[in-house]
Amino acid sequence: MSANAENTAFRAILVSRDDNKKQSVDVVTLNEQDLMPGDVTVEVEATTVNYKDGLAITGKSPVVRHWPMVPGIDLAGTVIRCDSNAFKPGDKVLLNGFGVGEVHWGAYAGKARLASDWLIPLPTGLSAKEAMAVGTAGYTAMLCIMALERHGITPASGPVVVTGANGGVGTVAIAVLSKLGYHVIASTGRPSEEAFLKGLGAAEIIDRKELSEPGRPLGKERWAAGVDAVGSHTLANVLAQTKYGGAVAACGLAQGFDLPSTVMPFILRGVALLGIDSVMAPKPLRIEAWNRIARDLDRTKLASLTSEVGFDDIIKTAEAIVDGKVRGRVVIDMTRA
């Protein structure tokens, strides 16, 4: 790559903090010399806004652990240069997690310098925008579904409840589970979205109030499994109402990181709580999950739950997702303002 190419300026969102730990968010101009170390340089074509990205930009939770920070935990793009044999210029790649956007500069910039071990090839048949329509949220949903399958859950086992149904994890989980033949119960705080959720494949809609308040240690057995991105009382109630031998995959904490439960679902009904980590998941598991997404996610449904904006809309979208005003997935086209 020529020196002129390396000096080509690009825009980025930079989150900073002053001596009094007051946070600020600015749009800045960078070039490659400004980027953090790594053996791969990627031109970022598309990214998305996850709940964690919203927390990083708004500062409402201590997501950022290195200052200043370019947020953005997901990206898809094209390799510009690779100093190892892992990739070659022109390869299409995908990144989720590994502390990018938290401790290492992330996706909200025209270019990113990363470690090749963090990247996987963009799955065949998925565009950069489609991959970001899925993003960490959808990839995490697939990890949840795979964990339930490994536990032995099948469509014949019974219904699967999905909490936070209007969010990124929830919408993709509903779409995939329904395509695989599961009876999906969607828990949402937005009853006006019933038509949207049923369009994704939900068979039943319940109000999240049924799950979000303190409940009994054991309740009526209502579902064979669950995908929970909410935590706190919601997860406790999902566990308490899971059928004998069932399982719940837990991947989020939108309501809180506490778990006000008892051992009763585990020792009286043999319920399993499956913890799902998407940030540091090993590469073979990532590749398996993304190949499953390419195969098992209906692209028409993916399009129906996705909206698209440009770079200039990242900050306001981050604020909206923290305020619970974003439905489904938002793709950021980094090639447009």
Strand-helix topology:
Blueprint: H1 3-6, E1 10-17, E2 23-30, E3 40-48, H2 51-58, E4 74-82, E5 92-96, E6 111-114, E7 119-121, H3 128-150, E8 160-162, H4 168-179, E9 184-188, H5 194-200, E10 204-207, H6 209-212, E11 223-228, H7 232-240, E12 242-250, H8 264-268, E13 272-275, H9 283-296, H10 299-304, E14 306-310, H11 314-322, E15 329-333
Parallel strand pairs: 8-9, 8-11, 9-10, 11-12, 12-13, 14-15
Antiparallel strand pairs: 1-2, 3-4, 3-6, 3-15, 4-5, 5-7
What are the defining features of this structure?
seven-stranded mixed sheet, alpha/beta, Rossmann fold, 2 domains, Quinone Oxidoreductase, Chain A, domain 1
Please sum up the structure shown.
It contains eleven helices and 15 strands. It is α/β, with parallel strands linked by helices.
